[in-house]
Amino acid sequence: MRSDGFGRLVGNVIFVPAGIAYVWETAGWVQAGLGLYLFFIVGAFLTGIFKRIREWPIISKIALAASSLSGLIG
Question: What's residue 70's pLDDT?
């Protein structure tokens, strides 16, 4: 069973920093934006947020897959 606390944690740890990183990247600070996003993704991994990724809504999974870090891979 999912709680509001977990959803709020995912939003604050993953999607809020991603929004800030996108703004930084748009402003021309691409390396700083990627660094910020990577820092929070590693922090999320260390806190165990990704252990429950199967419970995430599909739109959140898509947003994570389409993140700014995917640009480093492709």
Answer: 57
Residue type, position 38, single letter: L
The span from the CA of 69 to the CA of 5, in Å, is 26
Three-class SS state of 44: helix
CB under 8 Å, gap of 24 or more: what pairs does 63-67 form?
Answer: 63/15, 63/18, 64/14, 67/18, 67/37, 67/41
Domain ranges of the chain: 4-73
16 compared with 2, residue with greater pLDDT: 16
Measured CA to CA, the distance from residue 60 to residue 62 in angstroms comes to 5
Task: Determine the Cα–Cα distance for residues 74 and 59; give it in Å rounded to an integer.
Answer: 21
The whole-angstrom separation of Cα 55 and Cα 62 is 13
Calpha distance 61→25 (Å, rounded): 21
